[in-house]
């Protein structure tokens, strides 16, 4: 916390929070737009029910207000790392399925992917300012490179999973805004939560 | 150039032939090469090249490094720059690469002077790239969801080499593809920009001599956005006449950034924009109600936006949209004034009510009509008269009195507040004081000092003063609390008459006037001066005032400039109110040139020259000279007349001597045997024309008698003796002045007889002179036997034609007779023709007829009395004889017979014969 106490660290933290909030808001807006385009493009029903995406922590959480800042940052970082991988996979599948014909959807996906990456970077920076170690991405690497490869999904399942990813991302974007706003508040809650 | 390369090619061919004996069977092998191969060199650096010969060529052609020569573009490199490293290697060094050129060749002087090329390289000289500077980026919103970032930088100096610029940007964990400029080297545009992440941006410049990077620019692209301006702007009027509502669409989502706005507006036709306060539009919105607008006014609106926090760039202004506010009732009554015409009848006024149309911001709509109400304040019982007028003037016929006129303007919404004007019986209130003007750029400020009483308002009238047209009044109303206004529309160089009336609650003050110019200039022409009167030392000059159009300003003074031809100019300044001036102390009889200059505050203008000449004499000088001279002349004349009058007898005697009247001569009574009738009526008969040719004239000079010799006088002595013995004597007729001396007169009156008796006894005698003076004369005195009166014929002629005519005839006759010498007419003695027989002159017989006239002005005859003429007859003869010149011309050859001679004793001149003594 020593770094956080310095004025420059406080400014940096506040700047990161502010920028992260706006990035999350922009990301949500873009994801919402992308959802509409995706549903239409993939021929899905917007009201289709999708099971929870594997590997993505749920945005909804109980006792959200009781979470510490670090906890929030760690959950967010885990979620967005998962989204980054999923979106990259979606983008790859998209290019395989539609080729370059549907460049607009691919660009939108790429843009969202960039935003997810950027948001993950924001979270990492905030965690650094919190003097907390940044968890590695071994799990993801294990998932990608580990012996048990993911089961090969059908095309429809891919589409549904993509829909699920985007929906969850939209919800996470909303939650992230709230988390960062909470972090941005100079409340003693953060310190109280960290003290134990 | 071609030949040079041809030569080089031949050289290479020769080398190949020399150094490649087995070339026909394989690749071409050179005899050497240069290190480095085609280098790129920094400008200004040093450079060393090595030429290395192949060993195989050494043995074959006896070629060594000492024979190597270096050339730059066929120009020999000085050998001082060579260095033979060993038997096969030669180097050349250049301290400054700027002296290098392409190609650099290594050559051999084989067999003495045969130059053969071994190898050549291309040298490229340039500069390493400079560090790009001044990198800046801006994100343009291209569409609703598309943003591009354009970065620009200063590429630095020209490198002379192919230099690549790359715009690079990255996130901490993400590196994006480079942006490579196309066709330019100082800007690049990146698409698909992501916001809310700090992005590091830099420029990398690379060429063969190196690489340079700009300082990185770390920026969140959202902070350098220039958004698209609001779209679909619309303007709508609301219920309130002072409000317009502005609506628009933002093309950037709130998720990207929230916006603030800037709204500007202006009245149509006006160029000045007004802005809505920025704090009113600092929050995200899509509409705004602009308040405080004028009713019934068309406005133009425009809007722009930028990121709410003010970081970034303003968008462009949106397209302009117009809207018009609704009408409202007029905000004030029209300015009202009047012109009262009392010329027809003092008791009845013709009142011209005039008012100004309300300005648009006062009318607040379309004025449909004006309502004029006139109330007679002097008579409460008089009804109020109302008039509805659509124009801006109205004429009333009113009886003299006090009236209150009310004017209301009405539009579709309502009526204006009333304008009230009191028309008083007289303008007896206090006027304004200290009325003055001051030009202010293109306006004329009129100021005054308020009277002591409270003034409701002031009316300012002004008009352009013109000499050719009437003053057209313009007017303006000022509130009572102001003491000066600006008059607009005032033309420069024109004279304006400005009048200010104060209006009180109970009447009107008298007007105060002032003339003013907005801007003055020098007069457009100068005065034309002329003289009214010119004297000896003074001249009265007159001129006319310039017209107000010619003045161009207030004439401050006139200046008279006058001079003589060769003199200095004299300047006189004259008051501008005068039109006449007297120049004094002028030189008399001198030509003066005078001109006149009119001056305003801004300059002068001179009129035409006028010349005049002063008089030689002053007034009365001529009279003073002429009158005395005339008087003196008159006096002299008078004295002369008086003198002549006193001496008239003497003068008369000299000028008009008394001529004896032959008609009164006693000779007429002298001969008693005068035939009653004798054929002597006409001399023409007696002397037919042409027959009287030979006449001798005897001139007798009385004064010469003294010079006569005694010899000359002898015959006269004889004559005396003869006379004394004869009964008669020679005639004294014509005893004129020639015989003034009684002593010298030879008269027949020696016997003491009276003159009368003498005349009766005088006989003609013929004097025949045969000589003259020194000649020996034969003196023959022939006494005439005739007793006929000498002047009988004359008397007869007088009887017929009067004495004067007769005399004239005689004179004519003698003039003919003495035509050879007309001077004898003035002679004192008149010759009398006599028949003279000139014996000695064989061919000539002359008859000399002497006639002595008493009319001669000969001095000798002066004072000779009539009664003494007869007494002097003999002297006449004597005197005339003394001086006579006898020229006998009668032809002797044909003498007339006695029988043929007329029986007359009148002296005759006959061509043949003549008078013969009997």
Q: Describe it for me?
A:
The complex is a heterodimer of chains A (196) and B (918). In chain A, 72% of the residues lie in helices and 0% in strands. By secondary structure, chain A is mainly alpha-helical. In chain A, helix 3 (69-98) runs antiparallel to helix 6 (155-184). The radius of gyration of chain A is 18 Å and the shape is elongated. With 918 residues, chain B is of the alpha+beta class. Among the domains of chain B are: 32-126, Immunoglobulin-like; 133-219, Immunoglobulin-like (Sandwich); 227-325, Immunoglobulin-like (Sandwich), CATH 2.60.40.10; 335-424, Sandwich (Immunoglobulin-like), CATH 2.60.40; 427-519, Immunoglobulin-like (Sandwich); 529-614, Immunoglobulins (Immunoglobulin-like, Sandwich). Chain B is built from twelve helices and 53 strands. Classes of the chains: A mainly alpha (196), B alpha+beta (918). At the A-B interface, helix 2 and helix 4 of A face loops of B.
Mean pLDDT of chain A: 79
Q: Which CATH class of chain A applies here? A: Mainly Alpha
Coarse shape of chain A? elongated
- At the fold tier of CATH, the topology name of the domain at 227-325 in chain B is Immunoglobulin-like
Share of residues in strands of chain A? under 5%
Q: At the third CATH level, what is the topology name of chain A?
A: Growth Hormone, Chain: A
Rounded mean pLDDT of chain B is 75
* Amount of beta strand of chain B: 25-35%
User: Do you know the CATH architecture of the domain at 227-325 in chain B?
Assistant: Sandwich
A few lines on this structure:
The complex is a heterodimer of chains A (196) and B (918). Chain A is mainly α and 196 residues long.
